[in-house]
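Fold this complex.
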Amino acid sequence: MWQIIQSSLPEILWAGIKYTIPIAVISFAIGLVIAAITALVRISIPRGNAVGKALWQVARGFFSFYVWLFRSTPLLVQLFIVFFGLPNVGIQFDAWTAGIVTFSLNTGAYASETIRGAISSLPNSQWEAAYSLGMTYRQVLFLVIFPQALRVALPPLSNSFIGLVKDTSLASSITILEMFMVSQQIASHNYQPLLMYSLVAVVYALFCTVLSILQHYLEKRMSRYVVAQGE
Amino acid sequence: MIKLTNVDKQYTDHHALNQVSVTFPEHQTTVILGPSGAGKSTLLRAINLLERPQAGQLTIGEQTVDFSQPIANKEVLALRRKTAMVFQSWNLFPHLTILQNITAGPIHVLKQDKAAAEAVALKLLKQVGLEETAHRYPGQLSGGQQQRISICRALAMNPEYILFDEPTSALDPEIEAQVLRILQDLAKDQHSMIVVTHNMEFARRVADQIIFVEDGQVAFAGSSTAFFNRPTQRIADFLDAMKF
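Structure:
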């Protein structure tokens, strides 16, 4: 048994480093950008002339529909639609791109709700204090609102990221040779499915434990000023 | 000079400002008095454009905006840079240190050099006796200390006017006196200030001009002496009601 583990583990780990982690990290980064834009459009109050307000309502409707769509359908189905379905209408992605696109959009939909909630939880007085200093909307967001919202959003966003790392196993269904698929292939050769799937489970758990430790560290670091309030 | 002309602000069920016209002279302290819900804070916040009245005009210095027309963002920012606001609940940024709170505006809005902005901030902190708090967070300070910091934050912007929205309402009497003394010193230094307060003693001792607001209208605008001489029965009743 030890020999099987010794020979399989490097292959599984390599697949993790080459596919699982990059897919998760890239998709999460893109997903966060999508989430921030979606959340901002959905919480902003449209200003300006009638045309601007109408366009804003259309954008808000679009983003609300997007969030509803991706939260209401299974990730596996989304992967199949993007990779196997879209070529029917002339949109073709290689497996890697299809994986990134789907995971990013899926993460973006969930994380947008997290970010929206985090921003909404901040008192309006923070916006007002920043505006009263003459800051622009962008300055208020990046200097005052996002840093505080990020602290609130960090635990649920970390959960989403850990969930995404595990969900990358679904990428095997669109031919991406990530950790789970590698373990499947090895199991089909050595006829040790229990051992191989247990081994890959341990590797996933290891990755997620490292992320949990990182989350704990980040939470502590970002909450310095809150801890200070109790002193 | 700040001038509000025929300013009107209507909420769904409440006329907060009703054709208000009033002038706030430079280098003077104007105190806005009136019963709760009279429209004092709305009036003050309209000057900083945190409230947008539906009609009327606001003039600060050479710049005038018409509230009945859409106001360009550039104009809003320019007007806000002429005034700085001190809030009732101080509203410091909890994730920034005291020094960062005071320098955020000068560095990011006025585009001042960081070292220069910090030097000014430290000088202001020294003036209010809080230089040792520079690297602490707002949550580590008492309410009175936070309010003094928020005054420093406003002063660091070197505004033409400082607007105080009930700056001592959330403080206990001893701390209130400390903060009011700072306001008194600012008044002596000829800062242009507009102060919404319920503190009659402060109004009597510091105000050059008093505006009495009731039901969204200016019921009195004149000198402090004239106000405390009870020019109308309503003001006499108000002053009597404020006595313990």
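The longest helix of chain B spans residues 173-188.
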